[in-house]
Amino acid sequence: MPQYNYIEGGIVAPKGFLASGVSAGVKKSGKRDVCVIAAEQAVPAAAVFTKNALAAPPVQVSRRHVADGRLRAIVANSGNANACTGQQGIADAEAMAAATADALGCEPEDVFVASTGVIGERLPMQALMTGIADAVEALDNADGDAAAEAIMTTDTFLKQVAVSFEVQGSRYAVAGIAKGSGMIMPNMATMLAFLTTDAPLTPEACAEALLSATEKTFNRISVDGDTSTNDCAVLIASGAAAGPPIKPETAAFAEVSEAIEHVSAELARMLVRDGEGATKFITVTVCGAASENDAFSSAMAIANSSLFKTAIFGGDANWGRVAMAIGNSSAVIDPDRLEITFAGLTTCLDGMAISFDEEAASAALSEPEVDVVVDLHVGECEATVWTCDLSYDYVRINGDYRT
Question: What domains does the chain contain, in order, with CATH numbers?
């Protein structure tokens, strides 16, 4: 495992990248809402996208643009998702790519487009075109704070991380920014996640590394069980750190891929910690499963249970809600072997209640981080997912999201 040094700079910490974030007036608040991230030329890249059947126009356009495994830039806006906007939405997403390409001097097909915000409203294109021009003009490699801020919606803090590490005598960096607070149960990635590296990955290596990282990180989180129309994660490799190409079969690939997973996991956990109205970060681990899929499906069933999440919010070690959720999963279960532990206190053994200290349990569940472990005792496979509690504030935030 590489030794990671956390470094400043955010998304532009790896060599060969510029970024910016500006206010174009897409958001009524006047906060930054247009982000551009650019390499010096078209370089290897890969992306994963939502499996929501109503994939938004920017997702549809970006799928085409990244299909050849190369990108020059990312352009993203917040405040408007450009989702459920029909052919006009497609045209608007293509116009965002074209405007960015024109300003950078590249082909529109080399630009990845992303949008996040309210669904069902057309983008304010005049303001957005001005914002894109301003964002390209503002590009620099000073730090990624402005870019990270420009993709936020209901997020309460910037989500960015950058690390450097050494592989076979070469020093590389991997960085990422992400946004997401509600409508989070990714079925591919997260709301938006942009990753950069200066390692000389090939397009094939980018695709394999991103897919592997996504499955182990962004696909292991849930805030509310809802998968967005706009989810996407993209990785761009500038190769500016030089060295021979890193292909999936090369020795260096495993370590660079592991670093991409490390950054993705940090971002994924930030998304959960910033869940809308969240007061607690919950780690759910299911072990003793018959298969990895059984472990994952049962862990995610717990994480997506509103009853479980409200119990944790209230500090109630109601293990019956965990048992209920597991029973609704597709996992192989022996009811007579089930074991459930809340915050270090075993509450269910051999499928039945056992006595435990309710006051100690309540105190443990009042902590900001809570671990829930379930042992199915039917196999040797294990999976961990991350989620948060469901509070009164989640309802308040989403009750007037549009208004």
Answer: 5-273 (3.60.70.12), 281-399 (3.10.20.340)
